[in-house]
């Protein structure tokens, strides 16, 4: 059985697959790690349990995950040896990792060297891998990097116009994120349209609390909105998106803020939350905007405008556009935001059918109008399946066989997931 682990800064998501990836046997979320109100939510075939309990760190979170997978009532395995391979998400692989890799000492050393590129994310990714290696001794671990998909972005798009030595010696460049999601969604889009991905130009709009737009030409990332850190590009839930960097000097030199204060402002107090003054949740912001809250209305308009502008830029960069794709929390669930973004993109050939747009989550991914020359789709992302696919690809066949005498208890009952 293949286990996928996605360690965020304060959460851990996991899914357990059959070895052929045909079934999800169990899945769960451990949230608010290191915070008040932490909880574990585990599901297996219609059974499971959500409980609040202290989760001080990621090591404890993985121990809770294993306890849930082996639980007497809603567990699905008898012992850790039932897990034959583990796939992990890592946010940042620098320019070292251009593909997913099997973990060894050298890989762990390189991962630690990348911590400075993603200080909020990579440490918890590393903690998850280390904990998994202790809990599942001898089981191969595979790391899937969000940045790997964007290693095909050409130099003219990933090198900043700063002194070249900062790029050559210090690795300061655009890296891009949500690559695992983009890779899955771009191939799923080609499959849905029955169109060879090698012949397609598409823009993937990954719209959630974190937001990235990615230009995918022939199945390869050629530009993406988030750059060196994870607050650039278009505005997000609490992150600012791009702004004039001279503002930082003004905040420090004229308003007396520390660099730590500015970092907190850019990552945690900006975006939808910063403009609206209300929330980082698009659902609440759009509801209040409809009720006449002007700052919420402005927050939505800024969000939509910056996304629309980026789509146009990427169409120009690729010299065309065949598909516009929405995914992730906002992209998959907000018909209003999709309508607002697509409005005014008719010059590119983007036109949507409003009736289909309203029911896109009910099995109607293609929301294009009949006369549209660009296909517009809503494609649910599945980073966990992409991680599982790479884990299966990189694990030697002889290691994928469950040891004799080890059972996957409750498997038949868990199948309905």
UniProtKB/TrEMBL annotation:
GO terms for molecular function: acetate kinase activity; ATP binding; magnesium ion binding. Keywords: ATP-binding, Cytoplasm, Kinase, Magnesium, Metal-binding, Nucleotide-binding, Transferase. GO terms for cellular component: cytoplasm. Its cofactor is Mg(2+); Mn(2+). Mg(2+). Can also accept Mn(2+). Its EC number is 2.7.2.1. The record marks 178, 239 as: Transition state stabilizer. It catalyses: acetate + ATP = acetyl phosphate + ADP. The keyword Magnesium applies. GO terms for biological process: acetate metabolic process; acetyl-CoA biosynthetic process. ATP binds at residues 13, 206-210, 281-283, 329-333. Pathway: Metabolic intermediate biosynthesis; acetyl-CoA biosynthesis; acetyl-CoA from acetate: step 1/2. It is found in: Cytoplasm. Its main location: cytoplasm. It comes from the Bacteria. It is an enzyme of class 2 (transferase). Mg(2+) binds at residues 6, 383. Catalyzes the formation of acetyl phosphate from acetate and ATP. Can also catalyze the reverse reaction. NCBIfam families: ackA. Homodimer. Belongs to the acetokinase family. This is Acetate kinase. It comes from Rhodovulum kholense.
């Amino acid at each position: 059985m293949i286990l996928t682990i996605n360690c965020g800064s304060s959460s851990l998501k996991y899914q357990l697959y059959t070895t052929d990836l045909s079934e999800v046997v169990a899945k769960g979320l451990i949230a608010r790690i290191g915070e008040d109100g932490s909880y574990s939510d585990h599901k297996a075939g219609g059974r499971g349990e959500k409980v609040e309990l202290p989760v001080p760190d990621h090591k404890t979170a993985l121990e809770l995950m294993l306890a849930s997978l082996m639980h007497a009532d809603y567990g699905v395995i008898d012992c850790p040896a039932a897990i034959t391979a583990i796939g992990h998400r890592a946010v940042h692989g620098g320019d070292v990792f251009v593909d997913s890799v099997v973990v060894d000492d050298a890989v762990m050393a390189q991962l630690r060297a990348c911590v400075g590129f993603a200080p909020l994310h990579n440490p918890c990714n590393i903690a998850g891998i280390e904990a998994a290696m202790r809990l599942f001794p001898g089981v191969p671990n595979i790391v899937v990097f969000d940045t790997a998909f964007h290693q095909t972005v050409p130099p003219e798009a990933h090198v900043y116009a700063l002194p070249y030595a900062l790029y050559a010696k210090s690795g300061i460049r655009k890296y891009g994120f949500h690559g695992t999601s983009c890779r899955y969604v771009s191939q799923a889009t080609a499959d849905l349209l029955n169109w060879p991905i090698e012949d397609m130009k598409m823009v993937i709009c990954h719209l959630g609390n974190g937001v990235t737009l990615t230009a995918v030409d022939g199945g390869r990332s050629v530009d993406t909105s988030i750059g060196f850190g994870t607050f650039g590009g278009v505005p997000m839930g609490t992150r600012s998106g791009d702004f004039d960097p001279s503002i930082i000097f003004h905040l420090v030199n004229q308003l007396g803020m520390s660099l730590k204060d500015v970092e907190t402002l850019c990552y945690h107090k900006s975006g939808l939350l910063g403009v609206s003054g209300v929330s980082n949740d698009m659902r609440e912001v759009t509801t209040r905007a409809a009720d006449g809250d002007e700052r919420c209305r402005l927050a939505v308009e800024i969000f939509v405008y910056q996304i629309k502008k980026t789509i146009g830029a990427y169409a120009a960069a690729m010299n065309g556009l065949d598909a516009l794709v929405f995914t992730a929390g906002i992209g998959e669930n907000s018909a209003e935001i999709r309508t607002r973004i697509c409005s005014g993109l008719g010059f590119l050939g983007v036109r949507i059918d409003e009736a289909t747009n309203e029911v896109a989550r009910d099995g109607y991914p293609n929301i294009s109008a009949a006369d549209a020359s660009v296909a517009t789709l809503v494609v649910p992302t599945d980073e966990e399946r992409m991680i599982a696919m790479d884990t299966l690809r990189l694990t030697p066949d002889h290691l994928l066989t469950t040891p004799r005498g080890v059972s996957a208890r409750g498997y038949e009952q868990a199948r309905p997931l």
